[in-house]
Amino acid sequence: MTTTGGPARVLVVDDSDAIRTLIRINLELEGFEVAEAASGARCLELVPGTDVVTLDLLLPDSGPGGLDVLRRLKRDPALGRPRVVVVTAAALPADRRRGESAGADAYITKPFEPVDLVDTVRALAAPGGPPA
Q1: In 10 A of CB 132, how many CB atoms?
Q2: Using CB atoms within 10 A as the burial measure, which of 18, 24, 50, 129 is most buried?
Q3: Whole-angstrom distance, CA of residue 22 vs CA of residue 83
Q4: 54 has which bridge partners?
Q5: Which helix (H) or strand (E) holds 13?
Q6: What are φ and ψ of residue 41, in 5° steps?
């Protein structure tokens, strides 16, 4: 739940329909309100009012990449500065460092256990959860 008392709003950003669906279903089953975006540009359009974003770093070349989107989400107050869980196949230690230095609140590599992702989103969405 958010500080307003309603369900936390989560935006799932991934260019894979299958991954978006997997994440959406698991989050909806836990009571989250979920929206989806297949690109960085669409993410930036939909994000205002979102509590948590799950963000793939490897987005299509037709718009801003995942790291650029992450930086904007964390730095632009007009976007609400949501908590961000990076969910990506970029699994090298250098990838993780780049994600964390760009502002990721959590970093999960694919393949992942849906329960781990749900637990991470729940912790970030909770009032008084980990700092942004």
Answers
A1: 11
A2: 50
A3: 20
A4: 12, 85
A5: strand 9-13
A6: -65, -45
Q: How far is CA 40 from CA 71, 77, 112, 119, 126, in A?
A: 11, 17, 21, 24, 25
Residue 115 CA to residue 132 CA, distance in Å, equals 22
- Contact (CB, 8 A) for 71 and 100: no
In this structure, what token pair is assigned to residue 47?
A: 């994000």
Question: Could you report the per-residue pLDDT of 5-35, keeping only the tens digit for each?
Answer: 689 999 999 999 999 999 999 999 999 999 9
> 111 falls in which pLDDT band (50, 70, 90)?
very high
Q: How far apart are the first and last CA of the chain?
A: 16
pTM, 2 dp:
0.92
Task: 98-102: list long-range contacts, CB under 8 Å, 24+ apart.
Answer: 98/67, 99/57, 99/67, 99/70, 102/67, 102/70, 102/71, 102/74
Question: Do 74 and 99 form a contact (C-beta atoms < 8 A)?
Answer: no
